[in-house]
Structures are given as structure tokens and as C-alpha cells.
């Protein structure tokens, strides 16, 4: 299994060393998810749990030859009662009844999420055929954030190789929060710097993006990113950050010399934090479609245990990469 960029190949090799187990709730009705799971099992990326509602669903794939693949019928497996009981205990304070819990775990996303919650799998990947909200709703109800105040966000790794040079950026939030507050933005910056170090293996230089650089404009976006910057300054952080800042000032040395010459980040930012979902989503797609960057993600960050969503347009290769990153989280 060979990918276009070094970072993609490195993620696969690191995942192989992790020894993790990933559950795939859509395996029985998504050909791409099934192919990605089999690919991961064959290549030794991870152990895979394929969920199904039909014991004969995978009969043509001779899965019994793979010791790293486990098939579970989420409707008939004895595990369902135990998962339902655990779900009831976690959600009864919200009014969930035992009968409702039993009904919920007949949904493969809830079944898989409870497997992760109870340590029966290390992570979950879905979204090839279902919406982002369908993938994340059980996780936000059950697994939640690392702390009670953590706001879950997403990041993309954008990678491009030209000749022998490879450029890597981490972008956030491009997939979940529509209009985050300054406090959310500061949280995303900290989360993304951690993801940049631990997953992308780059030393983070974080830019809080806006249409203004250091007071050159005004408006709600400017106020929000300025506030986020001040909040970050109050923390003892081990990475460089700056903002508010326009994209060209963040990534171009020439522009940075004119707009913010004293910044530790300007001209060399590699972690780009967007002020809202629309700009983040458009930004990563511009890099992907016009800039020739590989888009790895969206990957959830800030969650207590890894649950990840793939785009409904994701290729098998992109799903494999998401599975690999889920192992590393």
C-alpha cells in the first residue's frame, strides 16, 4: 500500500505498530468501508471489527482466512444485552429507559460506539454512507470530550509533495462547529497544535486566521480572533501562535515582512485556525481541488476516545488513512 506523500505512508507504518482494533459499523452496506477494512487487515494496519445484520453478508469475501478480522452481527450477538445495559446506566439520568437502550444498540453506530466506550474496540470509523451527525451523535452523548468543558472539533492534514519537498499543514475547524466562540477557537488552537505534533509530526506554528492582520480591519471576526489570541496568551503553551492574521501573512515570508515583521509565526505558519466553519470548509477544499493537496480528514479531536467520520465522497484510500489515524489517536 503506497501513497503519494511521505506523511501518508508514515501514518500507515506507525499505525501498524499500534496494535489497535477499529470497528466499522457500515461494513455490511458500504462497499468502500468493507474494502478499506479488508485492506487494513491484509496490510497489518490494525485489527478490524466488521458489523453486520446478516450472517451471510460477507460470505463472498472469505474473511475466515483473516485472523485480524472479526465479524459481529449487532442484532443477534450476545454482546448486545451487555452494551444496552451499559448504555442505560450512562444515559438513564437523561431519561433513557432500558427498552430504549436495547433499541438504540440495534443501530450499528450506537453498537460500535458502545464497544469503544467499554474498551472492546479502540476506535470507530464511519460516515461513508451516513451523515456526520449520525456518526457523531452517539459519541457526543456517550464518550464526550476529554474534559467536561472540551469542545470537540475536527482537523485536516493537508499534504503535498513536489519533487523532494513536502509541505504539510494542519487546518481546523473545517468539519463540525458552525460559528465557534473565541473560547472555542482558543481550544481548537491547543487541540490542533497537539494533533500537529503527535499525528502530523510537525512543530506547530499556529495562526488565527481572519480578513485582518493585527488590526488592519475591524468587525466581529477580528474581535473574535483577537480575543482568542488573548486567551491563548494567558495559558503556558509550548508552541508559537499569533493572530488575528490574513492567510497570506501567515504563510508568505514576503507578505509577513510587510504586515507583521515581528511575528514568530507569520510567514511560516503550519497550523491554520479558521474563524468559522464556512471559511474552514471552503479553505481546505480550495487547497485540495486547486492546490493539489491531499486532504486527510476530517479527524475529530478533543474526544475522550477516537470516533471519526469520513466524507461520503471518500475513496477507499482516504478511509484507510482515517482508520490509520484513528489507531494513532
Structure explained in plain terms:
The protein is of the alpha/beta class. It has two domains: 6-144 and 307-328, Rossmann fold (3-Layer(aba) Sandwich); 153-294, Isocitrate/Isopropylmalate dehydrogenase-like (Rossmann fold). Helix content is 42%, strand content 19%. It has twelve helices and eleven strands. The strands form two sheets. It has a six-stranded mixed β-sheet, with helices on both faces. Strands 3-2-1-4-11 form a five-stranded parallel β-sheet, sandwiched between helices. Helix 1 crosses helix 12 (316-328), helix 2 crosses helix 12 (316-328) and helix 5 (108-117) packs parallel to helix 6 (132-142). The chain is globular and about 65 Å long. The model has no long low-confidence stretch (mean pLDDT 94).
What spatial order of strands do you see in the largest sheet? 8-7-9-6-5-10
The total of helices stands at 12
Overall domain count:
2
Query: What order do the SSEs take from the amino end to the carboxyl end, as H and E?
Result: HEHEEHHHEHEEHEHEHHEHEEH
Q: What is the terminal-to-terminal distance?
A: 21 Å
The CATH architecture term of the largest domain is 3-Layer(aba) Sandwich
Dominant shape: globular
Mean pLDDT over all positions: 94
Kindly estimate the percentage of residues that lie in beta strands according to DSSP. 15-25%
Amino acid at each position: 500500500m503506497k501513497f503519494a506523500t511521505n506523511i501518508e505512508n508514515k501514518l500507515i507504518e506507525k499505525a501498524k505498530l499500534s496494535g489497535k482494533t477499529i470497528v466499522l459499523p457500515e461494513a455490511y452496506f458500504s462497499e468502500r468501508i468493507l474494502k478499506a477494512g479488508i485492506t487494513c487487515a491484509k496490510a497489518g494496519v490494525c485489527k478490524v471489527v466488521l458489523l453486520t445484520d446478516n450472517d451471510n453478508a460477507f460470505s463472498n469475501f472469505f474473511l475466515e482466512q483473516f485472523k485480524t478480522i472479526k465479524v459481529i452481527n449487532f442484532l443477534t450477538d450476545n454482546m448486545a444485552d451487555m452494551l444496552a445495559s451499559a448504555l442505560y446506566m450512562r444515559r438513564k439520568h437523561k431519561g433513557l429507559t432500558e427498552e430504549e437502550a436495547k433499541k438504540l444498540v440495534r443501530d450499528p453506530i450506537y453498537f460500535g460506539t458502545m464497544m469503544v466506550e467499554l474498551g472492546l474496540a479502540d476506535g470507530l470509523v464511519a460516515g461513508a454512507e451516513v451523515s456526520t451527525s449520525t456518526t457523531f451523535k452517539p459519541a457526543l452523548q456517550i464518550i464526550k470530550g476529554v474534559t467536561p468543558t472540551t469542545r470537540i472539533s475536527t482537523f485536516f492534514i493537508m499534504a503535498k509533495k513536489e519533487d523532494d519537498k513536502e509541505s504539510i499543514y494542519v487546518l481546523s475547524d473545517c468539519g463540525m462547529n458552525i460559528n465557534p466562540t473565541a473560547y472555542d477557537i482558543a481550544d481548537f488552537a491547543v487541540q490542533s497544535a497537539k494533533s500537529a505534533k503527535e499525528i502530523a509530526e510537525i512543530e506547530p506554528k499556529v495562526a488565527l486566521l481572519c480578513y485582518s492582520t493585527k488590526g488592519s480591519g475591524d468587525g466581529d471576526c477580528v474581535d473574535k480572533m483577537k480575543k482568542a489570541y488573548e486567551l491563548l496568551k494567558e495559558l503556558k503553551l509550548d508552541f508559537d501562535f499569533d493572530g488575528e492574521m490574513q492567510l497570506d501573512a501567515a504563510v508568505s515570508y514576503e507578505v509577513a515582512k510587510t504586515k507583521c515583521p515581528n511575528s514568530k509565526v507569520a510567514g511560516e505558519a503550519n497550523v491554520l485556525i479558521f474563524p468559522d466553519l464556512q471559511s474552514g470548509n471552503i479553505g481546505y477544499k480550495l487547497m485540495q481541488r486547486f492546490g493539489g493537496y491531499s486532504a486527510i480528514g476530517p479527524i475529530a479531536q478533543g474526544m475522550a476516545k477516537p470516533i471519526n467520520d469520513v466524507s461520503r465522497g471518500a475513496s477507499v484510500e482516504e478511509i484507510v488513512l482515517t482508520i490509520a489515524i484513528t489507531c494513532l489517536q
